[in-house]
């Protein structure tokens, strides 16, 4: 895993955690998990299906949020576009996984309520931190919900990638500690 730069794409919300949502990758740049055809994921537990649906909802929210952020942040357009693409790849991978398991993937919302009032570059970056935190939380929930090694590998990769993106956004604010001891285990 490498630290993403502005020109280089990177690649749950656990119950009770904050979400960028209404009243809702292959990670690593789209190479690993997406290369595994959906039928090769094998049986996926019911608990994991529920967790994957939550992760999919977080990915939908992240994609929408990055599209929203770009209107307020002209300094980071390349990074925003790359990160939005990372989330699109993750979304497509988890949707394929769900379809392969016979589950109907949750749909995206028309719009999302964001927990940060976005008015400029700084507040857009704050929203990006929240978006990535929510994704790490949901992917951590997936990791703990399954014994399927391929599903778990996909989730760990997605969690790691979101944690790296979250740290990259936190680096813009010197008042914020960019390090998270246990990514995916955050509520604030």
Automatic annotation (TrEMBL):
Residues 51-185 form the DUF4439 domain. Residues 1-34 are annotated as: Disordered. Pfam families: DUF4439. Transmembrane segments: none annotated. InterPro entries: DUF4439 (IPR029447), Ferritin-like (IPR012347), Ferritin-like_SF (IPR009078). It comes from the Bacteria. Residues 1-13 have a biased composition (Polar residues). This is DUF4439 domain-containing protein.
